[in-house]
Design brief:
Structural class: mainly alpha
Oligomer: single chain
Distance between the termini: 32 Å
Number of helices: 6
Number of domains: 2
Shape: globular
Helix content: 55-70%
Length: 120
């Protein structure tokens, strides 16, 4: 019985990993397109980046910097750990402490919930 459960868990985890790889590839392509100044995709089309400017403290410049770092949606921000926050904060040297001060993670969770109707 335990072998069957482990097999199911393994199958489910591999499926989740495949989905994550596909999502990563999609966002990587969006970032490449942004860096090449490609025209933006249609609004609300699959793979369209979220409007990160809806997060208090994120303006057009910060949104562009986040896109360049591969951060394109609320879900990514909502899932940041303390370590992730420290790493991103270090990469946004012009805006030290902004992530925690403006509570980006909590805002991203709420925005993701309201836009997609699911928890991030």
């Amino acid at each position: 019985m335990q072998c069957a459960e482990l097999s199911e868990d393994r199958h489910r985890l591999f499926a989740s990993l495949a989905d994550a790889h596909a999502e990563t590839a999609r966002y990587r392509q969006i970032v490449v397109d942004i860096e090449r100044n490609a025209p933006p995709p249609l609004l609300d089309a699959p793979g369209t980046p979220d409007d990160l400017k809806l997060i208090v403290g994120v303006g057009p410049a910060l949104e562009r910097m986040l896109y360049q770092l591969g951060i394109t949606n609320y879900r990514q921000i909502a899932r940041w750990s303390e370590r992730d926050i420290d790493e991103i904060d270090a990469r946004l040297a012009e805006f030290p402490g902004r992530i925690r001060r403006d509570a980006w993670v909590a805002q991203a969770r709420a925005l993701h919930q309201s836009k997609y109707g699911e928890r991030p």
